[in-house]
Amino acid sequence: MKIRILFCLLICLVFLFGEDYEKARGEMVRHQLESRDIKTKSVLNAMKNVPRHQFVPENQKRNAYDDRPLPIGFGQTISQPYIVAYMTQIIDPKPEYRVLEIGTGSGYQAAVLGEIVDSVFTVEIIQALAERARTDLKENGYDHVIVRHADGYHGWKSKAPFDAIVVTAAAEHIPPPLIEQLKPDGKMIIPVGSPFMIQNLMLVEKKGESVRTTSLFPVRFVPLTREPR
Fold this sequence. Notes:
Elements (H helix, E strand, L loop, with lengths): L1 H33 L6 H9 L20 E4 L2 E3 L2 H10 L7 E5 L5 H7 L4 E6 L2 H13 L5 E5 L12 E6 L8 H6 E11 L6 E9 L2 E10 L10
Parallel strand pairs: 3-4, 3-6, 4-5, 6-7
Antiparallel strand pairs: 1-2, 7-8, 8-9
Helix pairs in contact: 1-2, 2-4
């Protein structure tokens, strides 16, 4: 009898916290995104659907829907929800898109992209994070998001070209391989600047063989880690 009571209490707690997460996610979308400049319906729906608490460490789940980045280990972070939504909106993703993400981290940005587009290819240089993200993405139903453990500076040439590229770590310059792997009329969003300093979030637009860059606003991202040379 005691075991049955404890089991029922456990189920109730799981159900209760599940409802709390859903409520928190809805409030996040209303207060952090819709109240700002996130207006694209597909992006808002993606942010409503992706369980952000499933992509953070256990000790950060209670903070999963806060308006701030969170640590995920190995000196890395999961970006603030607004930044994830903004970077997704700015590339204007369509269902038929092939998107490359550099800096998988927790897998959350890849999951948001995976709610909208057919194919997501994401590269993470830290093997433990790549393996964890691969597991979390699969367990949450994102089988069309493919994770690779590699140096993201070089992109993913065998899967190119890409309709859009999202870089979630700060590079000191825009990596030429990423520009090469971007389709004509494709877009890339990338933070550019010195490590551990204020960087600029840059929009890169490829028009035929020409490339146009636009500085959007200052940001602070962890640096783009490279393999030893």
